Amino acid sequence: MADEQDQYITPLTAEEKKQLIPSLISKDAVNAFEELNILEARAWAVGPRTIQRIDPFSEPVIREVHKRMFNRTWGWAGKYRTTEKLNMGVPVGEIYERLGVLLGNGRYWVHNEFFLADEIAVRFHHELTVIRPFPNGNGRHARLYADIIARKLGGDVFTWGRVHLHAGTVREKYIEVLQEADNGNIKPLLAFARS
Predict the structure, then answer these.
(1) Residue 10: DSSP 8-state
(2) Per-residue pLDDT band at 5 (split at 50, 70, 90)
(3) Secondary structure of residue 81 in the 3-state scheme
(4) What is the count of structural domains for the chain?
(5) Fewer CB near the terminus (10 Å): N or C of the chain?
(6) Helix, strand, or coil here: 135?
(7) Full domain range(s) for residue 43
(8) Distance between CA 68 and CA 44 in Å, rounded?
């Protein structure tokens, strides 16, 4: 399972690592620092004032959410990646195009009531994880983004297994249901999002 999990952990280039803002030396310290940054962003993102005024199907909002999640941690927060990530994500030159298609699909799904609100949010989440627009933090960003869409559509935020997804059996399950979605079956990811 480790090899399968590794395909969902985005490696950073030496140049991307140089843009770490605080002077932290361990991965655990970086994770803890990022978590505080993300909690701040979450409070802003799913708060009633933000939900009322933002359009989650707008490209600048995708970048703004990522920036708020990592702006105290990484110099590249809110900026799309400029490097390829092995077998991960779409090629750099396709990021804008694929995001444009995803945003258009999201608007279409909402406007035409094509899916229920939870499914719209989870499908959007899955496609963001496939695109991997940022150097790192794509899974966390996609989960928060799904929460924003769910709240914008009148629902509750997702529970995502009720634990941090850095490691362990819950992360393994998350990766398993992402792979199911990669193969066209969104239902396990939808169920996991509410577990």
Answers:
(1) P
(2) very low
(3) coil
(4) 1
(5) N
(6) coil
(7) 20-154
(8) 9
The token pair that represents 176 in the structure block: 């398993």
Among 141, 139, 44, 152, smallest CA distance to 106 is for: 152
Residue type, 3: D
- The amino acid sitting at 157 is V
Give the Cα separation of 143 and 145 in Å (integer). 5
pLDDT, tens digit, for every residue of 30-88?
888 889 999 999 999 999 999 999 999 999 999 999 999 999 999 999 999 999 987 78
Q: Indicate which CATH number applies to the domain containing 67.
A: 1.10.3290.10
In this predicted structure, the answer to whether residue 6 has a pLDDT above a threshold of 60 is: no
DSSP annotation of 194 reads T
Burial of 170 (0-12, 13-18, 19+ CB in 10 A): middle
For residue 88, list its beta bridge partners.
85
Which residue pairs, CB below 8 angstroms and at least 24 apart, start in 41-48? 41/65, 41/68, 41/69, 41/144, 42/144, 42/147, 44/68, 45/144, 45/147, 45/148, 46/144, 46/147, 46/148, 46/151, 46/157
Calculate the alpha carbon distances from 69 to 10, 80, 92, 97, 166 in Å. 16, 14, 21, 23, 16
Report the pLDDT value the prediction gives residue 10, as an integer from 0 to 100: 65
The first and second tokens of residue 100, run together, are 């444009």
Residue 101: phi and psi, rounded to 5, are -65, -45
pLDDT in tens, 153-166: 999 999 998 766 66
For tokens 């990530």, name the residue. Answer: 85
Q: What phi and psi, each to the nearest 5 degrees, are found at residue 74?
A: -130, 140
